[in-house]
Write a structure and sequence with these properties.
Shape: globular
Mean pLDDT: 94
Strand order of the largest sheet: 7-6-10-8-9
Helix content: 25-40%
Number of domains: 4
Number of strands: 18
Distance between the termini: 38 Å
CATH class of the largest domain: Alpha Beta
Oligomer: single chain
Strand content: 15-25%
Bound molecules: iron/sulfur cluster
């Protein structure tokens, strides 16, 4: 593969394909000792990363190698669960010098960057910092694939699972609707559905099936509307806060299971729950919530009372961040607590506890050439400033044309046409086709 530059990656609009969509050209414009490919994929029922590794091992290794060269890393590591022996074998035969595989446990949240970096390197990222603080860069599987392809990002891979006829992993034009993706999985098997976007642990409840798939949509989990997960995601903040304040018995199981607490970070969700009782606002006020990664383990697995410490922490964290509050105690070196390894949540236990056991836990990648007649491309599909349209309503575009760019000098990523057609420019999105 010819040498890849950050300028090419920027021109292709590559962003982190599995999380918040951090622009990849910025991430790789740094120096690090180690680059890790995050193939842990620990969200129940999602299969996109391992399916892509099975289908495109050479491209993904090439993308990781390009990233390794750009950051000047001595070593590239593919972090993947030990149980995917066939994928590990497939990759092992192809590894270039300076690249190795780290086998991970089948637990949640093994894909959390902090846990992944600890498992692979033994280093603990300090609270509130990013992997670069310990000389590491972490890259998503699909991001590596997009780097290797070297063309504008116009396609998105995702798993569609849960209450659908044929759980699958598909690659569709960015801007395809959730409803169209669910049809590609054979359609929903129940009439009244709720859809969790991105996963059952860290996803969000879809407001409408007409919402578009973006560069960061990793999966759609379709569930009956009366499923306990949909009910939980539908709870409003006042109910979460009121019930939490009255029913928390301060057992501290949420803290004992919290992966960031177990890494030695100063977060104790039971204290956030306790502070609900004393606040006059119905909100918690506990500075340690700044270090919550929103993994949801405390709520979904730990709490015996079915309370929602995750949302209590998240609500508090968002407010503290909006107020510009910071952790003001002198930083101390984090040390993992002795029970870190014993308190990992096995994925099978998670699937059972979440009421997902009846759904097929698979998502084979199917070859498809789905072409929607119309796509909606949000101007904000990444961290940073929303992209600004560079096309006008009525203009014809073809696949791969730039339709929006970040404002000059601002963090962001370009957006390209994912289908050919006539554009309609709106305030928050560009629509192509009719
Ligand atoms: S969601 Fe809960 S378990 Fe996860 S980091 Fe936050 S407080 Fe800890
Ligand atoms: S696990 Fe539940 S009941 Fe126990 S302290 Fe945490 S929120 Fe309260």
């Amino acid at each position: 593969m010819p040498e890849v530059t950050v300028q090419q990656i920027q021109a292709c609009g590559v962003v982190g394909a599995g999380g918040a969509g951090f622009p990849t050209h910025v991430k790789l414009n740094a120096k690090a000792e180690t680059i890790i490919l995050n193939a842990a994929e620990c969200e129940p029922l999602l299969h996109k990363d391992k399916e892509m590794l099975r289908a495109y091992p050479d491209e993904i290794i090439a993308g990781l190698e390009a990233g390794r060269k750009l950051v000047g890393a001595k070593e590239a590591v593919i972090g993947i669960k030990y149980k995917y022996a066939d994928v590990i074998e497939l990759l092992s035969k192809r590894l270039p010098a300076g690249m190795r595989i780290a086998e991970l446990s089948d637990s949640y949240p093994s894909g959390d960057e902090f846990i992944l970096v600890y498992d692979v390197t033994g280093k603990i990222i300090p609270p509130g910092k990013i992997p670069l603080a310990v000389n590491v860069v972490v890259m998503n599987v699909e991001t590596a694939y997009n780097i290797a392809r070297g063309v504008p990002v116009t396609k998105k891979y995702l798993t569609v699972a849960g209450a659908v006829a044929n759980p699958v992993t598909i690659g569709v034009p960015v801007g395809t609707t959730y409803a169209e993706a669910i049809d590609l999985a054979g359609g929903a098997t129940v009439r009244d559905v709720g859809v969790l976007v991105g996963g059952v642990m860290m996803g969000k409840l879809a407001a409408s099936l007409d919402e578009p798939i973006t560069k960061t949509t990793g999966g759609l989990i379709v569930l009956p509307r009366d499923h306990k997960l949909i009910q939980r995601y539908s709870l409003d903040w006042s109910a979460i806060s009121r019930i939490g304040a009255s029913a928390c018995d301060q057992c501290s199981f949420c803290t004992e299971m919290c992966p960031r607490y177990l890494l030695g970070h100063p977060i104790e969700p039971h204290k956030a729950m306790r502070s609900l009782v004393f606040s006059h606002t119905g909100e918690s006020s506990t500075i340690g919530t700044l270090f919550c990664c929103e993994c949801n383990l405390c709520t979904m697995i730990a709490c015996p009372e079915d309370l929602d410490p995750k949302n209590v922490c998240t609500q508090n964290k968002r407010r503290l961040m909006a107020e510009g509050r910071k952790w003001e105690v002198a930083p101390v070196e984090s040390r993992p607590r002795t029970l870190l390894n014993n308190r990992r949540a096995p994925l099978q236990r998670l699937i059972r506890k979440l009421g997902l056991f009846d759904f097929e836990n698979k998502g084979p990648l199917i070859a498809d050439s789905f072409q929607p007649k119309r796509v909606t491309l949000p101007l904000r599909q990444h961290i940073g400033a929303p992209a600004e349209p560079v096309v006008r309503t009525g203009q014809e575009v073809k696949v791969g044309d730039v339709i929006a760019r970040p404002p000059e000098g601002k963090l962001g990523a370009a957006i390209h046409a994912s289908i050919a057609g006539k554009v309609s420019v709106g305030k928050d999105a560009i629509v192509i086709g009719g």
